[in-house]
């Protein structure tokens, strides 16, 4: 009888230990899933704005202006997010980030094709600013939680977790590009059918992420237990290796954006030179049109849909 009780007690102890381990890993699971869902929308929104602006005849330079506050807001948010996270916790910054993405997506619903280019640029630039703030507030939780759930003596495991999260993040951002482009190309009624579908899919993904973060995380997760670094200390680090790495990343991301974010999609979307100037052809329903990608029928001749 004593052996049975001992065995039962041991079994109960093992169950409690497993439950404790699951509870300790739950913040990692919740934040990682929320971060990865957000990452899909981050890539998708970039394609939605770019392709919709292209269809509305915005030039490459005008589209680049739309994204400038996205990047600038991200820089300043990155500096302040760490201080905010240490003071109010990761739950606060994560929910703020997801909410800002909701605001940015909601504003894009209000983008009207009838607006002038100036009105459209100002409006979309502000909407993208909210998305830029959202990106870095959400990223704080995704990158920080790995350290919070990893014991000090298992730093090798920490690097593996960070590698997995970063790899998934980059892959899912690419998935977001495809989702945004596929939705924009969907054969739906109305000229804005694909645009509204793409935004709706992104709103749904963010709506899936918010309940987990709101109910499954404690308010004190990630708060600083000791004196937090000031903004000045974060900006001007005494660690020279960190300063050099930050400086190198500045050029790395600038070089990527220089050719990939706006110029490459415009180049790939542009029609072949030999297709421009060809006479329009009879399409379905007897209407005259152009069978060549990136062209439209103007005065009986196929012309580039976007000269920018």
TrEMBL record:
<keyword id="KW-1133">Transmembrane helix</keyword>
<feature type="transmembrane region" description="Helical">
    <location>
        <begin position="63"/>
        <end position="85"/>
    </location>
</feature>
<feature type="transmembrane region" description="Helical">
    <location>
        <begin position="194"/>
        <end position="217"/>
    </location>
</feature>
<feature type="transmembrane region" description="Helical">
    <location>
        <begin position="28"/>
        <end position="51"/>
    </location>
</feature>
<keyword id="KW-0812">Transmembrane</keyword>
<protein>
    <recommendedName>
        <fullName>ADP,ATP carrier protein</fullName>
    </recommendedName>
</protein>
<feature type="transmembrane region" description="Helical">
    <location>
        <begin position="92"/>
        <end position="111"/>
    </location>
</feature>
<keyword id="KW-0472">Membrane</keyword>
<dbReference type="InterPro" id="IPR036259">
    <property type="entry name" value="MFS_trans_sf"/>
</dbReference>
<dbReference type="InterPro" id="IPR047769">
    <property type="entry name" value="MFS_ArsJ"/>
</dbReference>
């Amino acid at each position: 009888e004593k052996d049975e009780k001992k065995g039962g007690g041991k079994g109960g102890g093992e169950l409690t230990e497993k439950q404790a381990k699951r509870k300790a890993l739950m913040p990692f699971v919740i934040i990682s899933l929320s971060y990865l869902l957000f990452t899909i929308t981050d890539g998708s929104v970039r394609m939605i704005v770019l392709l919709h602006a292209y269809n509305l005849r915005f030039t490459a330079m005008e589209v680049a202006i739309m994204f400038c506050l996205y990047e600038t807001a991200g820089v300043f948010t990155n500096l302040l997010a760490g201080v905010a996270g240490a003071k109010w916790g990761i739950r606060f910054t994560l929910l703020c980030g997801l909410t800002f993405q909701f605001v940015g997506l909601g504003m894009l619903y209000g983008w009207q094709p009838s607006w002038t280019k100036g009105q459209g640029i100002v409006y979309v630039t502000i909407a993208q600013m909210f998305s830029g703030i959202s990106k870095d507030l959400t990223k704080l939780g995704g990158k920080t939680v790995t350290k919070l759930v990893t014991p000090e003596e298992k730093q090798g495991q920490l690097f593996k977790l960070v590698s997995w999260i970063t790899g998934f993040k980059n892959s899912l951002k690419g998935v977001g590009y495809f989702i945004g482009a596929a939705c924009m190309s969907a054969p739906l009624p109305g000229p804005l059918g694909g645009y509204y579908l793409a935004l709706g899919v992104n709103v749904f993904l963010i709506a899936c992420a918010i309940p987990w973060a709101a109910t499954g995380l404690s308010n004190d997760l990630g708060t600083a237990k000791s004196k937090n670094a000031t903004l000045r200390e974060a900006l001007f680090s005494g660690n020279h290796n960190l300063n050099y790495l930050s400086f190198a990343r500045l050029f790395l991301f600038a070089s990527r954006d220089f050719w990939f974010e706006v110029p490459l999609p415009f180049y790939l979307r542009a029609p072949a030179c030999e297709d421009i100037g060809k006479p329009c052809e009879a399409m379905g329903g007897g209407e005259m049109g152009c069978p060549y990608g990136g062209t439209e029928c103007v005065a009986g001749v196929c012309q580039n849909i976007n000269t920018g």
